[in-house]
Design a protein that fits this description.
Blueprint (H helix, E strand, L loop, with lengths): L3 E10 L2 E11 L4 E5 L6 H9 L6 E6 L2 E2 L10 E4 L11 H11 L4 H15 L14 H13 L5 E5 L7 H18 L2 E6 L2 H7 L2 E6 L2 E6 L1 H6 L4 H6 L6 E7 L6 E4 L4 E3 L4 H4 L4 E5 L4 E4 L7 E10 L4 E7 L2 E7 L10 E6 L5 E4 L10
This protein binds adenosine-5'-diphosphate and magnesium ion (MG).
C-alpha cells in the first residue's frame, strides 16, 4: 500500500493545457473519487499516475518515491478501464493470469493468486469460460480480477461501471466498496456520476477544465460547496439558484430578480456584497399553506413521482425551482403554490463568474 501525491501536476497536449497545477494527496488505503463533467481531465490525471501519459510539469509520488520517469510497469499500479479490454479468445483464468505470466511469475504462484482473486469476486464457477459467455457485470469482475492478482500498491479505476445497466451499477458500486474494505489498497476512482462519487468515496475531488474545484468528504461537499459549480454538480435533483440581492433596507430578506422576497437570517458577510446568488437544495424547500409566514409564490410546471418522493418543479423567483417532497402530490400543472425555504440551510454565492461561497 502507498500514498499517492501529486504536486503542481501539469499536462499539456501541444498548446492545450489539460491539467493546471493539480495538487492532490491520496492517503495510504484511502478511496478517492475524482468526479467532474466529461472532458475535465479525469482520465488524463489517472493516466499520468499510471505512467501512460508523460507529464509536462510537477511531480507524482507513489509511496514517497517520485515516479515521474518510472515506467508504468514499475509503478506497482493496476488500472481498470471502462472498456474491460479482455482477451476474447482466452478463458477467464487465462485473462486473469496473463500479466503474471508475462512478468515471469512461477505457475503455482499464479494459480494461487488467480484462485484468491476468483474467490473474492465470486468468479470460481466461471474460470473456464470465455468473455463472450459472460454478462457485462461478470466481465467487469474479470477486469477487476485481473487487477487484483497483481496485488498492486494502488488501484486506478476509470469509469468502470459506465457500460452497465442502472441496477447492475448499483450492485457493482457496493461490490467495489466491499472489495476495497477487504484489500485496503489505495484507490483512485474516476467517474462523471456524482451519485457514484457520493456513495463510494472516502474523499471526493471535483474537477472542472483541468482544475480542482474542491476536495472533501462527500457530505462536506454537499453541505458546504466551495463555489457555485460544486453546488450545482453535487446533488440530484440539482441545487436551486436564485439571482438577486439582500434587501438594502432590511437585514432578513433576499429579493430575487423578479422582486420575490425570501426570508433569510441576518448574515453580515452577505449584506455588504450584493448582488448575490441564493442557493437552496430541493429538499430544503417545501410546499406550504398560503398564509405561512415568509411563504413565496410559484406556479407548478412539472410533477415527477419516483415512488418514495415527488419532485415538483415550480416557476418562481424568476427561475425554475425544484422541490422534493416526501408526500404524494395532487398538484396540477399551472396550479399556484406557496413555497418556503429552510432558513438554516441556505447557501450564498458571489454573483461573479467564479461564484465563490460567501461566508454565512
Ligand atoms: N491525446 C490527446 N491529445 C489532445 N487532447 C487530448 C488528448 N487526450 C485528451 N485530450 C483532451 O484533454 C481534455 C481532458 O480529457 P480527458 O482527460 O479524457 O477528460 P475526462 O476523462 O474528464 O472526460 C479534453 O479536452 C480532451 O479533448
Ligand atoms: Mg475519461
Amino acid at each position: 500500500m502507498a500514498q499517492v501525491a501529486l504536486n503542481k501536476l501539469v499536462k499539456r497536449y501541444g498548446a492545450y493545457q489539460a491539467l493546471h497545477e493539480v495538487d492532490m494527496t491520496v492517503e495510504n488505503g484511502e478511496f478517492v473519487v475524482l468526479v467532474g463533467p466529461s472532458g475535465c481531465g479525469k482520465s488524463t490525471l489517472l493516466r499520468t499516475i499510471a505512467g501512460l501519459e508523460e507529464i509536462s510539469g510537477g511531480t507524482i509520488s507513489i509511496g514517497g518515491r517520485v515516479v515521474n520517469t518510472i515506467r508504468p510497469k514499475e509503478r506497482d499500479i493496476a488500472m481498470v478501464f471502462q472498456s474491460y479490454a479482455l482477451y476474447p479468445h482466452k478463458t477467464v483464468r487465462k485473462n486473469m493470469s496473463f500479466a503474471l505470466k508475462l512478468a515471469g511469475v512461477a505457475q503455482p504462484e499464479i494459480d494461487k493468486a488467480v484462485e484468491r482473486a476468483a474467490a473474492i469476486l465470486g468468479l470460481e464457477p466461471l474460470l473456464d469460460r470465455k468473455p463472450k459467455q459472460l454478462s457485462g457485470g461478470q466481465r467487469q469482475r474479470v477486469a477487476m480480477g485481473r487487477a487484483i492478482v497483481r496485488n498492486p500498491q494502488v488501484f486506478l479505476f476509470d469509469e468502470p461501471l459506465s457500460n452497465l445497466d442502472a441496477k447492475l451499477r448499483v450492485q457493482m458500486r457496493a461490490e467495489i466498496r466491499e472489495l476495497h474494505q477487504r484489500l485496503g489498497a489505495t484507490t483512485v476512482y474516476v467517474t462523471h456520476d456524482q451519485i457514484e462519487a457520493m456513495t463510494m468515496a472516502d474523499k471526493i475531488v471535483v474537477m472542472r477544465d483541468g482544475h480542482i474545484e474542491q476536495i472533501g468528504h462527500p457530505l462536506e461537499l454537499y453541505d458546504r460547496p466551495a463555489n457555485r459549480f460544486v453546488a450545482g454538480f453535487i446533488g440530484s435533483p440539482a441545487m436551486n439558484f436564485i439571482e438577486g440581492q439582500v434587501d438594502a433596507s432590511g437585514t432578513d430578506r433576499f429579493i430575487a430578480s423578479d422582486g420575490t422576497a425570501i426570508p433569510v437570517s441576518a448574515r453580515l458577510g452577505i449584506l455588504k456584497r450584493s448582488p448575490a446568488v441564493l442557493a437552496i437544495r430541493p429538499e430544503d424547500l417545501s410546499i406550504v399553506e398560503e398564509n405561512t409566514p415568509g411563504a413565496f409564490p410559484g406556479m407548478v410546471s412539472v410533477v415527477e413521482t419516483t415512488g418514495p418522493e415527488t419532485i415538483v418543479i415550480a416557476n418562481s423567483c424568476g427561475t425554475r425551482l425544484s422541490v422534493v417532497i416526501k408526500e404524494r402530490s395532487r398538484l396540477k400543472l399551472g396550479e399556484k403554490v406557496w413555497l418556503s425555504a429552510d432558513v438554516s440551510k441556505l447557501h450564498f454565492f458571489e454573483a461573479s463568474k467564479d461564484g465563490r461561497r460567501l461566508a454565512a
